[in-house]
Amino acid sequence: MIDMAQYYNIKYLKEVEGLSERSIAKKLGISRNTVSKYLNQSELPTAINRQRIYGSKQYSDETKRVLPIIDQWLEDDLKHWAKQKHTAARIYKRLVDEYAFKGSASNIRKVVAKRRKKLQKVFIPLEFQLGHQFQFDWGEADIILQGRILRVYLFCIQLSASRMRFVRAYLHEKQEAFLDGFVHAFEFFGGIPTEGLYDNLKTAVQKTLKGRDRIEQETFLALQAHYLFKSEFCNVRSGNEKGRIEGTVGYIRRNAFVPLPAVQSMEELNDSLKEWCLKESERTMVPNSKETVAQMWEKEKGYLQALPDQVFEACKLVSCQVNKTSLVTIETNQYSVPCQFVGKAVWAKIFVDQVIIVAQNQVIAEHSRSYERNQMFTNLDHYLDALLNKPRAIRDAHAFHSSEIPDVFKRYHRKMREQEGAIGDQKFIRLLLLHREIGLPKLTQALIEAEKTHVFRYEVVHDMIQQLTNEGVIIHDLSREKTPTNLLDYKVQKSNVEQYGLLTGGKK
């Protein structure tokens, strides 16, 4: 092997300083034969020549014996999950155990590194058309929600051409969150690209077929039909095929979630994430371009399909049976419906933030969705018709003791019950039914005013309601010009008191 430093010294002393071979050998402390060999080189030891010389080392017969086996294992690894591939140490152990390999572990490490490098895939630079594609993936990050650290799931989507990002956080990766994310994303982008690129996630794919063919989830197909885009799926365990969004997920986590965002609600977090996406687009340049992401996005909007007039219902639809306590069970939690539906089958639309119960194409109940477990959520109005027949039950009814019922209702009911017993319960339920006519705010106000009189009777509240509902009504006199003609000559006849006396027999 040629020593480049020695070659340089010999050449310099000979060509520049003009020394003889004997003098060079003496000055450098080497033999004349070595000096002669270096000076008689027909080919300069360039980098290419050095690489050829260094790479000319031959494998031993023992290593040559196992090379086909190593190559086959490495090729098989390309079809498997990146986190479940052979390491050089595992290859060495298998060779020893299964093929009685006698070579060294260090030699196998070098062989594996060299053979793996030859198997590396070639990636082709891509240029996406405006409005054509988006890429989607889920990510995870920690936040501080109301003082507690919580793991949230990030719906991450990016337009492939302009690189515009959108991210929204959810408490889970369930289907309703998946669908809801697209509704918000398309609204944010201002339109819909032609196609989307996905992993083989269960919320979109029901069954993976040969190649890129998939049987898609029915609700995901409904989303595509509503927004008119098509889906493309990566090959199994080939997330690198959507490399842009893969990198985006990590970038979002490192930049939007460090330090951990401290928020009071998911709405606050998602508002801040939307602002972060907009600010990032203004300061980030599109690669190989002189435009920012925001500028390119503005161009891309003109190539996106228009949003439909109606927003897609991003919900999971499940069938439920109403039990004898007028409740339906959804994911361990119970939600009330009007008591007339006891024993009937209904449909529940499960959204990210609410649960809507439907029967015969009519909405019969709406509740905020809970992510706790084994909880009961009741609406007092759902039980009022049943309470008319069982008025004493109002005292212990779960719905009546809800925090959503104003305290004045409970105080007024207590006083009515103290004064009239069971009849007080019945009259109070009649009071509650008035909310269907005037609304809960006005009924609450009427109870507050009635309470001030210290008279706890149905009639008092009813009078207060009359005053509140008539309050602000101004009666104007009609001018002669605006008065109907048939009323102008209308005369009100005065009462004859003597006739009244005749009816009473002359008694006053």
Structure overview:
- It is a single chain.
- The protein has helices at 4-15, 21-28, 32-39, 47-54, 61-77, 88-99, 105-118, 175-189, 218-227, 243-256, 266-283, 293-301, 384-389, 407-420, 422-433, 435-438, 440-452, 458-470, 485-488, 497-503; strands at 133-145, 148-159, 165-170, 195-198, 205-208, 214-216, 230-233, 262-263, 316-321, 327-330, 333-336, 345-350, 354-359, 362-368, 376-377.
- A hairpin with a 2-residue loop joins strand 10 and strand 11 (333-336).
- With 508 residues, it is an alpha/beta fold.
- 43% of the residues lie in helices and 16% in strands.
- Residues 50-56, 206-214 and 236-243 have low confidence and may be disordered.
- Helix 2 (21-28) crosses helix 3 (32-39) and helix 5 (61-77) crosses helix 7.
- The chain has five domains: 4-54; 61-118; 133-301, Nucleotidyltransferase, domain 5; 316-377, no CATH class; 387-470, no CATH class.
- The strands form four sheets. Strands 1, 2, 3, 4, 7 and 8 form a six-stranded mixed sheet that branches.
- The N and C termini lie far apart (142 Å).
- It has 20 helices and 15 strands.
